[in-house]
Amino acid sequence: MSKIQEVYDGWKNLINPDEDLKPFIEDVSAARMKICLGCEFHSDNVKNKSLLSEVRFDKHCTKCGCTIAAKTRSLLSECPLTPPLWGKAVKE
Length: 92
Fold this sequence. Notes:
With 92 residues, the protein is mostly helical. Helix content is 41%, strand content 0%.
């Protein structure tokens, strides 16, 4: 799976999710969000913010740069940390 497909999947599921998958997507996202909120790489938790973090208004991962609202809704993605804090929700 390419990173572009993962990004597309996240934004599609944020903006226009399949109605039959919407409850599952939101459950997965909520569980992942709880984990991300406690992560040192969540943009709200970074102590020494970069210039990019100062001009971005979205909540994002400073490790991979993804908008968290979209990243957590990509069923094909996993956390960028090693080891990942959360994994893919579906197999490719």
